[in-house]
């Protein structure tokens, strides 16, 4: 599969993994390897940096880190977290995530736009989490987003893609990469996102909380590759009725 390009960055895998919710660092390490990922996202506000013992960042040295602003609910708080991440990790990459409330974990569109404009002005390469609204997605692109990340369904829900038509519309109109983020619970969900034309997907809970995270990570990798191959191949025409698989001309009667 071809690489994923976001701004000046290029990654050998289109599957982006989160690093939260794993029972142990050892399980996370194995899952990341099994997934083949090159880009991992870290919730900066939720990472404990003090204390004894290994630190999360010690386990992520083979990967490019995409810091995210999970847990932020307005533009001011979001940008404070983004600046901290840039200083801590020495990167301009940013997954911009501004939530409306803790109950739904849905993105707050007005504060997202406000934070995006500030982040772009400050030189961040912004991958922005948003709802599956094609108009909002285009507006975010126009305001400088390097990648658009519409949700499939609510964060951590595992319900898959609620509105594939809107995801397809976002993909068709975008001139920057589109990665489906949030709610993907099965390899089939990942394959569907890629078949719709998404440039990549982001998965965390579905792998970290699977009965066998390593096996699920491998399954997600295969699904991502298969879905991309199917999209590039171009599906056969969809017909309203059945059609014979074999030619009917010249059949002996």
Can you describe what's shown?
The chain has 253 residues and is an alpha/beta fold. It has one domain (4-233): Aldolase class I (TIM Barrel, Alpha-Beta Barrel), CATH 3.20.20.70. It has 8 helices and 10 strands. The strands form 3 sheets. It has a 5-stranded parallel β-sheet with strand order 5-4-3-10-9. A 3-stranded parallel β-sheet has the order 6-7-8. Strands 1-2 form a two-stranded antiparallel ribbon. The radius of gyration is 19 Å and the shape is globular.
The N- to C-terminal Cα distance equals 47 Å
Architecture per CATH nomenclature, i.e. the level-2 architecture = Alpha-Beta Barrel
Give the % helix: 25-40%
Average residue-wise pLDDT: 92
Q: Which fold does the CATH topology refer to?
A: TIM Barrel
* Inertia-based shape: globular
* Radius of gyration using CA atoms only: 19 Å
> What fraction strand?
15-25%
The CATH homology group name: Aldolase class I
Helix-strand makeup class: alpha/beta
Pattern of helices and strands: EEEHEEHEHEHEHEHEHH
Low-confidence stretches: none
Main beta-sheet strand count, sense and barrel state: 5 strands, parallel
> Number of helical runs?
8
How many distinct folded domains? 1
User: What is the name of the CATH class?
Assistant: Alpha Beta
């Amino acid at each position: 599969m071809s690489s994923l390009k976001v701004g000046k960055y290029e990654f050998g895998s289109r599957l982006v993994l989160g690093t939260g919710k794993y029972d142990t660092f050892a399980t996370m390490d194995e899952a990341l390897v099994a997934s083949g990922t090159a880009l991992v996202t870290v919730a900066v506000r939720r990472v404990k940096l003090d204390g004894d013992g290994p630190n999360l960042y010690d386990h992520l040295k083979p990967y490019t880190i995409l810091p995210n602003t999970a847990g932020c609910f307005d533009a001011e708080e979001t940008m404070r977290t983004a600046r901290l991440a840039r200083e801590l990790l020495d990167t301009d990459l940013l997954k911009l995530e501004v939530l409306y409330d803790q109950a739904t974990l849905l993105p707050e569109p007005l504060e997202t736009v406000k934070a995006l404009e500030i982040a772009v002005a400050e030189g961040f390469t912004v991958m922005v989490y948003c709802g599956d609204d094609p108009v909002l997605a285009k507006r975010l692109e126009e305001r400088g987003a390097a990648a658009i990340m519409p949700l499939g369904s609510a964060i951590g829900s595992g319900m898959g893609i609620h509105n594939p038509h809107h995801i397809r519309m976002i993909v068709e109109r975008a001139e920057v990469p589109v990665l489906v983020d949030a709610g993907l619970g099965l390899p089939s969900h990942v394959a569907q996102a890629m078949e719709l034309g998404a440039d990549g997907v982001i998965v965390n809970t579905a792998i970290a909380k699977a009965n066998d995270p390593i096996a699920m990570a491998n399954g997600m990798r295969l699904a991502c590759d298969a879905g991309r191959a199917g999209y590039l191949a171009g599906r056969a025409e969809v017909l309203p009725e059945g059609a014979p698989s074999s030619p009917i001309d010249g059949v002996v009667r």
